[in-house]
Amino acid sequence: MEKEINEEELASNDGKGGRPTYISHGGRVIDVSNSPLWAGGIHMGRHAAGKDLTTDIESAPHGTEVFDRYPQAGRLSRRAVIETHLPATLSRFLALYPFFRRHPHPATVHFPIVLTLCTSFFSILYAATGNSSFDQSAWYCLIGALIFTPVAIVTGLLTWWVNYAARSMFPITVKQMLSIFVFVALLVLLVWRLIIPTPPTGLSIGAVLYFALALAVGPAVLVVSYYGGALTFPLEKK
């Protein structure tokens, strides 16, 4: 008969201070103490040992077959995710509807990424050709990006809180700082054009500053998307 391991015992085997490294998935408690990828009780800088990772594995770049490489320590005596940082009602809701744990942010973040890149792209075309239709396209993309960026920021913060307990992480810090920069830059561009509706032309200081800001948001949002992708599909470190 398999040993039953309760949540407190699972949490105590967190791989720290020489303790065993246990994780749980689908009711199985797996001993990954011998895995170099779980050194110190942390996997890829984001997953902590001593917890139920049933939901987390859904977004991993590998399947559950990796758990078969390690011995099974027992079975989790009561199926529940240990999420002391969440209100009980929210924790139960996410257990019933795991879709809302990770999907809201990926479902909304693509809009500001694409629209912000298009703002930069059409601004480049306008600066190169002087064709006002490109400036108008950049203007519409700017408005769309400004609408969706706060939505992506809010869902990102919610995902960070729910899945990572708002833990300080370098990729998330970079994403947050650049997201704020992108939002502020887009807002400045919008206000600029509302005050001066005439499309910027020539090499005046105002035109150069406007285009520099319009072009800067493109690379910034690419860096944000890179670190977002690295969190979802982390590169395995040998």
How would you describe this structure to a colleague?
- By secondary structure, the chain is of the alpha+beta class.
- The protein has helices spanning 7-12, 88-96, 99-102, 104-129, 132-164, 170-195, 205-232; strands at residues 4-5, 22-25, 28-31, 42-43, 47-48, 72-76.
- The protein has two domains: 4-82, Flavocytochrome B2, Chain A, domain 1; 100-232.
- The protein has seven helices and six strands.
- A hairpin with a 3-residue loop joins strand 4 and strand 5 (47-48).
- Helix 4 (104-129) packs antiparallel against helix 5, helix 5 packs antiparallel against helix 6 and helix 6 (170-195) runs antiparallel to helix 7.
- The chain is elongated and about 75 Å long.
Write the layout of secondary structure elements.
Layout: E1 4-5, H1 7-12, E2 22-25, E3 28-31, E4 42-43, E5 47-48, E6 72-76, H2 88-96, H3 99-102, H4 104-129, H5 132-164, H6 170-195, H7 205-232
Parallel strand pairs: 1-6
Antiparallel strand pairs: 2-3, 3-6, 4-5
Structural shape: elongated
What does the average pLDDT come to? Answer: 85
Looking across the biggest beta sheet, what order are the strands in? Answer: 1-6-3-2
Number of strands: 6
Q: Give the domain tally.
A: 2
**What percent strand?**
5-15%
Would you identify the regions where 5 or more consecutive residues have pLDDT less than 50?
A: none
Quaternary structure classification: single chain
Number of helices: 7
Structural class: alpha+beta
Tell me the span between the first and last alpha carbons: 36 Å
